[in-house]
Specification:
The protein is 83% helix and 0% strand. It is an all-alpha fold and 107 residues long.
Length: 107
């Protein structure tokens, strides 16, 4: 419980790495509040643009904690993160494609 509160304090202070360390301790103990720790970990990862890790944590919550009160929020966050992740990927792809096309013109 203390690790969860420390994680929450660090999350609010935007110290996401420290928050993630505290939440991971809760997850590793695998006792109480694991679902909340997974949810907050997913949010912290997404705030630092670690989208794959965010998706992994939230999917873990959704799949292994089907009765969690955080499940619906996790699903909402998953959809938002996936949209951001895909959008970033598409921007990179278009940028690379534009550079390739531009270079082809000068050849």
């Amino acid at each position: 419980d203390a690790n969860l509160r420390i994680g929450d304090c660090n999350f609010v202070l935007k110290k996401y790495k420290d928050a993630l360390n505290s939440y991971q301790k809760v997850i590793d103990l695998n006792k109480n509040h694991v679902d909340f720790a997974l949810y907050q970990s997913g949010l912290a990862h997404s705030r630092t643009s670690q989208y794959k890790s965010a998706v992994d944590k939230l999917e873990n919550l959704v799949q292994k904690h089907k009765n969690s009160i955080f499940r619906d929020e996790a699903l909402d966050q998953l959809s938002e993160i996936l949209l951001i992740w895909i959008s970033d990927w598409k921007k990179d792809w278009y940028f690379c494609d534009t550079r390739r096309t531009t270079n082809d013109v000068y050849l």
